[in-house]
TrEMBL record:
InterPro entries xrefs: Cyt_b/b6_C (IPR005798), Cyt_b/b6_C_sf (IPR036150), Cyt_b/b6_N (IPR005797), Cytb/b6-like_sf (IPR027387), Cytochrome_b (IPR030689), Cytochrome_b_C_euk/bac (IPR048260), Cytochrome_b_N_euk/bac (IPR048259), Di-haem_cyt_TM (IPR016174)
PANTHER family: CYTOCHROME B
Protein name in UniProt: Cytochrome b
Record field: transmembrane: 30-55, 76-98, 113-134, 141-167, 179-200, 221-247, 289-308, 320-341, 347-373
Record localization: Mitochondrion inner membrane
SUPFAM superfamilies: a domain/subunit of cytochrome bc1 complex (Ubiquinol-cytochrome c reductase), Transmembrane di-heme cytochromes
Binding sites annotated in the UniProt record for heme b b562: H82, H183
PROSITE patterns named among the record's database cross-references: CYTB_CTER, CYTB_NTER
Names of the cofactor(s): heme; heme b
Cytochrome b/b6 N-terminal region profile domain segment(s): 1-210
Amino-acid positions noted as binding a ubiquinone in the UniProt annotation, renumbered to this chain: H202
Organism: Sargassum fusiforme (Hijiki seaweed)
Span of the signal peptide: none
Cytochrome b/b6 C-terminal region profile domain mapped to chain residues: 211-381
Length: 419
């Protein structure tokens, strides 16, 4: 009888989950990805049950959501699980992105891994926006009206594209039907991209807190890393349960409990909290085209960051200047989220402009200038120490191993093999 791990199909599980070699120094920061995958599973399952009772028709959509809450057995639980699960999904993905930025997971040879993850993030944003429209509340309707009108900036065909998305001259029943279909489809595209992401991850191996190759100091994923992820799962389930049972509407928008009214514009159109940083960037530029391009550019910068990087060091643990810049960026991102909730006046607009400039400055300063500064300091240190090391300026790494046992240059990006 053939062992299960030699089976053509089941061997994938063995090689990618059980016997997958993993660095033994991974900490709980490496559990964000697996817990985000668990959140994706929760979203797909809860969404499938919600779809059984939802009516994608403008006259019944809002009532069908209330029907789920009041009449369907445990419908309130399924809906709150789906709504709060989306927020936790974004929390974990943001933490996953920040961890990658700090530990250099975007650097050679993992650029394609970074780009696939960023694409997953963009698909998540599209899915979440479309899902926000489905309850057909006030924020749903007016959010759909505002966001879809972004396509009107396309030269020549912009207005036609917007009308094609709407299925008419305004947001209405055809729009809701299309969004419902896409909201059901996109999670499966995200799932497919997750498998691509995993394939690219296992192609080059996981990064680690030191940012070096650990071919010798590797352990099997199961049971060692699996236990860490299991602890993270329990923390996630507990935290999510607290919000579902005690604060189910804390992360939502109260105005969306009012049925959509095309004749009554809300005083302040606010997206979900996980879009607020980009919404703040959109608002600080009075020009419509400029604001949309700035918001899109904020996302594009995530794709460009691996190309902007000039550092030879990977982990932020050995980059003190970059570590300061990184934590300033985290604070700036949080301030951007807060700025997205504030009224539109001169005082808050000035704050929004300041933190928006800070957001883009991180990718330029943290990617380009900090790397150059590190090179200058490193070459100066090497020259003063009289080391026998030489550097290839074209390859951007040392060509001669260091003459001492341990030093900062042992943690260079290309992971020199010592002979």
């Amino acid at each position: 009888m053939t062992r299960w791990n030699l089976n053509a199909i089941l061997s994938w599980v063995d090689s990618h989950i059980i016997d997958y070699p993993t660095a033994m120094n991974l900490n709980y920061n490496w559990s964000f990805g697996s817990t985000a995958g668990f959140c994706l599973l929760i979203q797909i399952l809860s969404g499938a049950f919600l779809a059984m009772h939802y009516a994608s028709e403008t006259h019944y959509a809002f009532s069908s959501v209330e029907h789920i809450m009041r009449d369907v057995k445990s419908g309130w639980l399924i809906r709150y699980m789906h709504a709060n699960g989306a927020s936790f999904f974004f929390m974990l993905v943001y933490a996953h992105i920040f961890r990658g930025l700090y530990y250099g997971s975007y650097m050679e040879p993992r650029q394609h891994l970074w780009w696939s993850g960023t694409l997953i993030y963009v698909l998540m944003m599209a899915t979440a926006f479309i899902g926000y429209v489905l309850p057909w509340g006030q924020m749903s309707f007016w959010g759909a009206t505002v966001i879809t009108s972004f396509f009107s900036i396309i030269p020549v065909i912009g207005k036609e594209v917007v009308m094609w998305i709407w299925g008419g001259f305004t947001v209405g029943n055809p729009t809701l039907n299309r969004f419902y279909s896409l909201h059901y489809l996109l999670p499966f595209l995200i799932t497919g991209m997750v498998f691509v992401h995993l394939g690219l991850l296992h192609k080059d191996g996981s990064n680690n807190p030191l940012g070096i190759k650990t071919r010798v100091a590797n352990i099997n994923f199961y049971p060692y890393i699996y236990v860490k992820d299991l602890v993270a799962f329990f923390v996630l389930v507990f935290s999510l349960s607290v919000f579902i049972f005690y604060f189910p509407n804390a992360l939502g928008e109260p105005d969306n409990y009012l049925e959509a009214d095309p004749y009554s514009t809300p005083a302040h159109i606010v997206p979900e909290w996980y879009f607020l940083p980009f919404y703040a960037i959109l608002r600080v530029i009075p020009n419509k085209v400029g604001g949309i391009l700035a918001m899109g550019g904020a996302i594009v910068m995530l794709f460009l960051y691996p190309l902007l990087n000039t550092s030879m060091l990977r982990s932020g643990n050995f980059r003190p200047v970059y570590a300061v810049v990184f934590w300033l960026f985290v604070a700036d991102f949080c301030l951007l989220g807060w700025a997205g909730t504030t009224p539109v006046d001169d005082y808050f607009r000035f704050i929004g402009i300041t933190v928006s400039v800070g957001y883009f400055s991180f990718f330029i300063f943290g990617g380009l200038f900090v790397g150059w500064l590190e090179k200058i300091l490193m070459w100066h240190t090497i020259k003063r120490s009289g080391s026998n090391m030489r550097c290839s300026t074209s390859l951007n790494h040392l060509t001669t191993p260091p003459s001492y046992k341990v030093g900062v240059v042992d943690y260079l990006t290309p992971e020199i093999s010592h002979k």
